[in-house]
Amino acid sequence: MVKVEDVNIPDGLLYIEEHQWAKIEGEKVRVGITDYAQKSLRDIVYVELPEAGSEVDNMSEFGSIESVKAVSELYAPVSGEIVEVNSELEDAPELVNEDPYGKGWMVVIKASNLDEEKGSLLTAEQYAKIVEDALKESG
Asked: pTM of this prediction?
């Protein structure tokens, strides 16, 4: 686990600059937002996710997350088919605040080009630098 101030960044996950994580599970990739993202958004009130069966392209928008403060887009860290959607978030979007790396996951994508796209994802250490810079900017 890498920590930047009070932000947890688990090892064993990969990240994108848009403050989302990707957990590779064989040919599938579980996706959610990071601890930094949920802390920045504060109280999450709504999560809009696609239907299972939807196709997504690497770094294309697949949904959005709404808090009392802002609406943010969600991006697919890999291309493929969405095979699972966390329907619990419809009734309990606060799970994203409570457990962003566990119960607050968003979708599972069956990756169509994982070997190639995995290289563009960030390690915990690389993502920690982005969080450090973002925290410095926000003062």
From this structure: 0.96
